[in-house]
User: Fold these one by one.
Assistant:
Number 1:
Amino acid sequence: MSVLIDSLLAILAIYLALQCLLAQRLIQTVFIFFAFGLALALTWVRLGAIDVAITEAAIAAGFMGVLFLDALRDFSPAVSKKQQNLEAVRNPLPGNDTKRPILPRLALGLGLVLFLLISLEAVWNTPEGKGLTVVTGVMLPDSGVEHPVTAVLLNFRAYDTWLEIGVILMGLLAIFAAGGKEVYRKSGMTAEDPVLRQVILFFTPILFLFGAFLLYFGKSGPGGAFPAGVLWGAIGILLHLGGRPVLTVIPRWLLYLILTIGPGFFILLGFLLMTTGSTLFEYPPAYAGILILIVETMAAISIAAALTAIFTNLNQMSEEPDKIESNN
Amino acid sequence: MMIKEIITVILLIVGCFFFLAGTLGVLRFPDLFSRLHALTKADNLGLGFIAAGMALHIASPWAVLKILSIWFFTLLASSTSCYLIARFQKEKEQPTDRKEGE
């Protein structure tokens, strides 16, 4: 029975991925991408990687989906004539002209072959024993947390996690570089809709609470800074869409402080630990638990601010196409 | 024990039926509003039945509370997004109507 479910899930994920690449209209691609993210999250759940599943659902299906939808703008099924023409100009339907460029097909084919080879390799060469699970289990009491994934992410391999937070910041920097950084404005952003406003105000404390729960729960189970950061970032995005753009309220220096406090505190702590004679990110076992919780909280705050800022900037960039074009 | 399991299975099947009906509605109904109607109403009921079935199956107070809050929040979010999409479509179809009404 479970084999049946797993195979169906695998077929579904691959099918959705193919559909996502081959869909003819942009809007189909975006919605199939949603479904693909959810199928992938379910796959991770079936593989027993709940942490990855939560992050996949939150970032890939949730946050990326929001960005794609925002890029689409017009997301009603009845696409306006103008946009249809626009899309037809940008990506002509394959049925109409036979001279489709060969490069995308070649890339797709190469990717599929590569995927097949990697899958075969993974099936044939399963690692002997249990890999690093045993080592992690032995070291777990020294890590300060009870959940092995958190122990690996925030203690044993903390440097990787620090770089991951940096990647999000780099994304934001790229957006700043492309679109300018002075775009937050207040006028014309009031939510005219009372239902939307009330629902957003209702969901704000709940999202905050749930994020905090995931953050704290991360030491003993699936959760941690990234899902919590995404949930808190969702608050910022919702408030922005509901006509209360948070980034206009706080001064810019405070935004920069919030953006950098996570990775900054993380690396400063690492250097401080180095001065006591240990290596980078080698927490003393007695304080490891509380240190990891502080680091995770700071990281979650930074991730939330970065995601909100990414969305806000892209949102306003797509609202002012003339301005962007004139900049180019 | 036996009766509880039977009720759980019945609740799950009823939930799946509502999901199926909702999906059929999305695929078959002619315009956006009726599709929205099919999707949100049927899915909320379907999720409600599945949540009830799972709550009965797990039967620990905290889990029941969590499952019911999942259902409640989904209900709220999906009905709000349904309303927003419907309003968006209505304004797009008759852009002058709404200004006169206000």
Note: Chain B has four helices and no strands.
Number 2:
Amino acid sequence: MITENDKLSDLISKNIDLLPVVHRLGLSTQIGEKTIHEVCTLHKKDLKFILGILNTYSSADYLPNPENVELTQLIEFLSKTHEFHKHTTIPRLYASLEQLKKLLPNEKRLIIIENFLNKYIAKLLAHIDFEEKEIFPLAGKKFNQEEKSQSPNLKKLFKQHTNVENELSDFKIILIRHIPADADMELIHDLLHTLAHFENEQRDHARFEDKILIPKLFALQSN
Amino acid sequence: MQTGNSVIIHKSAIIQQGLKSILLSRNIGICDILNEIPDCAILSNWKNFLLLVDTLYANEISKHLRILQKNGTTVIGIGTNGFLSEPVFCFDDVIDINENTELILQRISGYVLRVSGIKPNNQLSPRETEILSLVAQGFSNKQIAEHNFISIHTVITHRKNITYKLGIKSISGLTLYAALNNLVDTHR
């Protein structure tokens, strides 16, 4: 369990995949020898919220007390995560695949894999768009009686998460089983590492939305 | 060492003995061979069993379906030509006794592994491969059932077995697997 007295640099050193999360939280500069409490004070951040995010991304079993998670801050963080995937993770996946294709121009399976990736990314971007346009704005909305009795979008979100997670996990398993014999192992490793990191991030992102965001939005609608 | 708990329920002594020799050839454990469906008290003691039952007992099996499913028992109908004219919903699968012995064995072995909780190798049976190909081509469970003259319940069972064996959960993942293994025409 990560506490306010832990040094942020130690945390990142133990789990380098936390660095993009720390960056999205606006804490990636002037880390030095500072504890999480000190970094939060320096950057004027909500300590309870930051600890909730860091612990969730460090442990698959952890979820913060929803009362310690302020809705506007959570949505801002989730939106930054979307941006990170759109502008960093997805281009990185395509870059690895492009390099593989250049090295193995006659490998037809790479075309099949690229087709799958294209469809998956299109679905993921539509899902992100749906969250940005339909779900996140619910946080600042006043609901009338009719709207309070209907919340189909929130129910739809949960199902979409399961699909998005399963497809990414399936993709990784299938890629491992079909590594071309003459492929550059470093490239394959890069691709699989990006996928595994993406899968973990998606899982934690969906946990926040399913277990904290959606119940909070439901509560807003029923008040 | 024998694997699994199976029970054969069939009136024909010839079919009983035939099934027995098939099961024993693969070291599949046989707990009992019966002529008819026993009473509910006995049925409810069967946990994670594999039942090979004459399709003529479909109505009686249907009456006990809830307890059988609750106990993790898999029920395979053993039929003869013509039984496929109507879908039989109470069976996880239906095997025609006229089928090739090797095919019967392959299908039964898959179910034995399932009730025994043993992770099988990822080798799909010919029937599962055919169903995977249809899933990858976008056919619905209903269309697949009609195409193969089997119940939707049987299609769902095959799909569960496919996912279990391959470790692939999503339809997109199954489609990618099928394409990479040349089970569908990727140029269409």
Note: DSSP finds nine helices and no strands in chain A.
